[in-house]
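To: structure subgroup
Subject: Chain for Friday's discussion

All,

I'm putting the inputs and outputs inline so they're searchable in the archive.
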Amino acid sequence: MRNILILTCAILLGVGGFLALAIFVNPTDTLAYSYSGKKWNTTSVGVDVSDASWPSSWISPLASAMSAWNGASSPFTFSSSASGHKFTRSNMGVGPLAVNTTSYIGSTIVDCDTNFNLYYSWSTSGSGCCYDVQSVATHELGHWLMLYDLYGGGDTEKTMYWSATTGETKKRSLHSDDINGINYIYP
């Protein structure tokens, strides 16, 4: 019998959010990246948006988020496919913007799913009134690679920084430390 463990990570609100999963890091430390030690047993993973909750207008921002990681000079790539590794949306109430759930056996990832919280307003254009789909999707795909959230004051410009604010688009592109993280995991 194999044991399957599930890890849930969430991107949190920039103001007034709560921490659903705590990884204790000295807030004055600046980490290049934080990696769990778990990885896919392949260098290509399909992202499935066949769930009826995922609107067609959100497919392009998700594809751009995948492209950000695919352009990191690593052999690892994300692609669109009916893989069962899903991006979905639902109203989860006050809480995280998105929740990423990862299942793994030993150190091998066997499934990832991400759910965006429809309690909040979303935009595909970077509008200042809403949270940016592409920015949050890029961050969540970093969790699919098992990169952890970063909490240091010097990490605020990195894709894997733990929080987001309305209108924020800086997580759409990868910081050099995010790139170093994927290249460490998949050289």
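Points worth raising on Friday:
The two ends are 32 Å apart (CA to CA).
The chain has three helices and nine strands.

D.
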